[in-house]
Amino acid sequence: MRSLCVEPFQNFSSQLPFVTVLRNSFVDTGARRTLTYCSPWKTNHKHEAVLFPPPSRPIRKSLCICLSSSAKLPMMEEKKKTFDANEAALLVKELNESFRSGKTKSYEWRVSQLKSIEKMVVEREKDICEALYKDLSKPEFEAFFSEIAMVKSSCKEALKELKHWMKPEKAKTSMETYPSSAEIVSEPLGAVLVISTWNYPFSLSVKPVIGAITAGNATVLKPSEIAPATSSLLSKLFEEYLDRSAVRVVEGDVPQTTALLEQKWDKIFYTGSPRVGRIIMTAAAKHLTPVVLELGGKCPAVIDSDVDLQVTARRIVAGKWQANNGQACISVDYIITTKDFAPKLIDALRKGIEECFGTDPMQSKDISRIVSSNHFSRLQSLMDEYKVYNKIVVGGQRNQKELKIAPTIFLDVPGDSQLMQEEIFGPLLPIITVENVKDSIDLINSKPKPLAAYLFTNNDKLRNYFVQSVSSGGMAINDTVLHLDFQMLQVTVSSLPFGGVGESGMGSYHGKFSFDAFSHKKAVLYRSFSGDSSVRYPPYTPEKQKLIKAVMNGGIFNIILALMGWSRD
Fold it and tell me: Start and end of every Aldehyde dehydrogenase domain (predicted)?
């Protein structure tokens, strides 16, 4: 037999990961114990090892392993290569080479990739739903209409409109350039980076990629590590369905994202929090890389007393808890209404919650869970703050083991509480009361500009005043994120841009706006060799000056006078 002595004992398992260590096997002097183990490599052989302490130092924390002569020590498995700055630089180089080859610019390539995404979503719908359930316990129905259907719709529109989007736009020319013509050409930017988020981990990953592809770019997607099942699935699906030379997925967390951000990109598209948005923008500034930041904020809903209360309550319930249990950037973050109307509204919301999720929402299969224990703890601390814990009027139940929090409503929490200072991003909904509904606008404008703002009213004057006075990324009147036929407002209306302002983000996308977000609008002026006037060239004479002034001031009469040597001056 031959021996292999491994010490110190603490390093034993790291050096021989295929051996199960019996930590008490060396305590009794002279004892011999046999350990049978199976190699993780594909083999039909078992290996027998006899464990005994070295004879000179029987109690020392070292260990001898004697392998029978017939046993062969498997070769150590190579460590998986980590994705670092060097790997990221190589990736960007490959994508730039693919882009410079011109393949991504062609209409045919763009269409082929869009059709592949469409095919991917149809063929792997079940896998997508399962991944979303693993990450968020997202109900299958919600997963379909808020994730899968959204991607399908984006693909269909892009395939239908792509030729029109790619066509140069005609532009007017002036008298100074006559004879001439001009156009605006949409050209792809190059290699772009999409960093997505976890709350809608499929649609908010794929939709920006669709925009990047329709514009003709080479693209890297970095999915969120907080939704690991969807991240892993996206990596596999993109590898299987899309052109790997121009569309790639990089999984990982902070180190991998940092490595990507160290590279020079032609655009970075990020969806997430304002805190990380600042980090993204700082990294992009080093390379003068333009960014689209889809962030969030505290989205208010102002409710007047003249509304249809039942419809309003259902739409608030849908826009808060049906939207991923409040884990959505455009979900209702807080409500403002009058003191007199608040009790009626609370009763209506309580009934709406019961209609949608039953008398015990914690047992409902139609509501998502909190994404992680960290986010659960954050929400729990908001609920337990001494300023607000006694303000709960509906709900409040929670289960940390299952990462569930019931729809919870607070009444008149203090303005300096954490609940009113930070974006909630969960199933907690404060109601703030005011004397007059118009007072709500001052309250909204005292906070950073939100991604969305909502108003429920039948008063046209109030509606117009709200639209003119409140600055937000988007706005909906008498509805929220969803309405009764389950079509997403703003998010699905591709003729409207979706994006923030101020703290809630910059840039916009959806439909044609996605194409524009990943394109450069190149101005092109076409002129012939005719009509070359000597007026534009030195030497400058008084006659030339008069003619130039006449042309610049406009009016055919002035030009005729200048050509005849006359002037009104």
Answer: 84-524
- Confidence grade of residue 174 (pLDDT, cut at 50, 70, 90): confident
**To the nearest whole number, what is the mean pLDDT of the chain?**
85
Q: 40 falls in which pLDDT band (50, 70, 90)?
A: very low
Residue range 85-295, CATH number: 3.40.605.10
Q: Which of 118, 294, 423, 503 is catalytic?
A: 294
Pairing of strands 291-294, 267-271: parallel
Active site residue 294: yes
Q: Domain limits of the chain?
A: 85-295, 300-496, 535-564
Residue 332 CA to residue 444 CA, distance in Å, equals 13
561 against 318, higher pLDDT = 318
Active-site residue among 147, 157, 329, 423?
Answer: 329
Starting at the edge strand found earlier in the chain, the sheet holding 180-188 runs 169-171, 180-188, 519-527
Q: Which of 29, 71, 28 is nearest to 49 (CA)?
A: 71
CATH superfamily ID and name for 300-496: Aldehyde Dehydrogenase; Chain A, domain 2 (3.40.309.10)
Amino acid 436: pLDDT: 94
Omega within 30 of 0 (cis) for the link into 179: yes
Domains 85-295 and 300-496 share a fold: no
